[in-house]
Amino acid sequence: MSSSKGKASSSKTPAQNRVIYSEFGNTDNSDALERPVPELPPNQQNLKVQASRKGRKGKTVTVISGFQVKPDTLEALAKQLKAQCGTGGTVKENAIEIQGDHTQKLVQVLATLGYKAKISGG
């Protein structure tokens, strides 16, 4: 008789996976919260290239901002620009930061890649 109890309990679904009531529908709405990013071609993007030292303890970085691309594309472009300059860098808040003052070189490289880039600031 104990074997029949084992079979009955194993055929039941776990209570933790069952939703009894949900006021707002599906709780897994990660697709709805993801904002679409317009992927513009390089010739339609206006980029600003500027050297900055603020908040970096006197170290100079070149900041390229104004991108309207997906994060994966931005990471690949950052890797290519870092290799061209021979320095490190990162991607922060839809902007690429390259270590050192490379404004002239980055404007030339971005122009060859098809982007409209201008030097901003002094």
Relevant terms:
alpha+beta, elongated, 122 residues, Translation Initiation Factor Eif1, 4 helices, five-stranded mixed beta sheet, 2 domains
Summarize the structure.
The protein is built from 4 helices and 5 strands; from the N terminus they run ααββαββαβ. The chain is α+β, with helices and mostly antiparallel strands and 122 residues long. It has 2 domains: 2-33, no CATH class; 42-119, Translation Initiation Factor Eif1 (2-Layer Sandwich).
Description:
By secondary structure, the protein is α+β, with helices and mostly antiparallel strands. It folds into two domains: 2-33, no CATH class; 42-119, 2-Layer Sandwich (Translation Initiation Factor Eif1), CATH 3.30.780.10. Helices cover 31% and strands 20% of the residues. The protein is built from four helices and five strands; from the N terminus they run ααββαββαβ. It has helices spanning 2-10, 30-33, 71-85, 103-112; strands at 46-52, 61-65, 89-92, 95-99, 116-119. A five-stranded mixed sheet has the order 3-4-2-1-5, with helices on one face. A hairpin with a 2-residue loop joins β3 and β4. The longest helix is centred in the middle third of the chain and has 15 residues, at 71-85. The protein starts with a helix and ends with a strand.
Structural class: alpha+beta
| Strand runs, count | 5
Instruction: Supply the CATH superfamily name of the largest domain.
Output: SUI1-like domain
How would you state the average pLDDT, rounded? Answer: 83
* Helical fraction: 25-40%
Shape: elongated
Strand arrangement within the widest β-sheet reads 3-4-2-1-5
Q: Which parts are unreliable, with pLDDT below 50 for 5 consecutive residues or more?
A: none
Strand-and-helix sequence, N→C?
HHEEHEEHE
Distance between the termini: 87 Å
User: CATH topology of the largest domain, what is it called?
Assistant: Translation Initiation Factor Eif1
CATH class of the largest domain reads Alpha Beta
Report strand %.
15-25%
Count of discrete alpha- or pi-helical segments spanning 4 or more residues: 4
Number of domains: 2
CATH 2nd-level architecture of the largest domain? 2-Layer Sandwich
Largest sheet: 5 strands, mixed
Radius of gyration: 25 Å
